[in-house]
Write a structure and sequence with these properties.
- By secondary structure, the chain is mostly helical.
- The protein folds into two domains: 5-66, Winged helix-like DNA-binding domain superfamily/Winged helix DNA-binding domain (Arc Repressor Mutant, subunit A, Orthogonal Bundle); 89-120, no CATH class.
- It is built from six helices and two strands; from the N terminus they run αααββααα.
- It has helices at residues 5-16, 22-33, 37-49, 70-86, 90-100, 105-119, and strands spanning 53-58, 61-66.
- α2 crosses α3.
- The longest helix is centred in the middle third of the chain and has 17 residues, at 70-86.
Length: 120
């Protein structure tokens, strides 16, 4: 399933805290994004249709909860990025960032620890 960048904003709100009503989602993401109530409701509707979000009736309103974990979403998006831009390989991505961005000492230490952990 493909979640758009706009839809991911709604998902982030639900991953932080759920279940939420549409009003709570609108309050959390609408103003910061400059979105109207209608825009947020369309995004919620799309996510329900994609089965990324569950809608449970609660009286006259619905409570929305994520059906896709943040970890699964990040994994899919990360792999898609690697596949599209780096032939599915992680090393060229790290090389790209090391050549175009300044890696902090903390970043380098984390990468070294990760490599050491993966080698075991």
């Amino acid at each position: 399933m493909k979640i758009s960048s706009a839809e991911s904003v709604v998902m982030e709100a639900l991953w932080r805290r759920s279940p939420l009503t549409s009003e709570a989602i609108i309050a959390e993401v609408g103003a910061p994004q400059g979105w109207t109530e209608g825009t947020v409701k369309v995004l919620i509707s799309r996510l329900v249709k994609k089965k990324a979000v569950a809608a449970q009736a609660d009286g006259r309103r619905y409570l929305y909860s994520p059906l896709v974990s943040r970890q699964a979403y990040v994994g899919t998006e990360s792999q898609g990025l690697l596949d599209r831009l780096f032939g599915g390989r992680l090393a060229p991505l790290v090389t790209h960032f090391s050549e175009t961005e300044t890696l902090s000492d903390e970043d380098i230490a984390e990468l070294k620890a990760l490599i050491e952990k993966m080698g075991k």
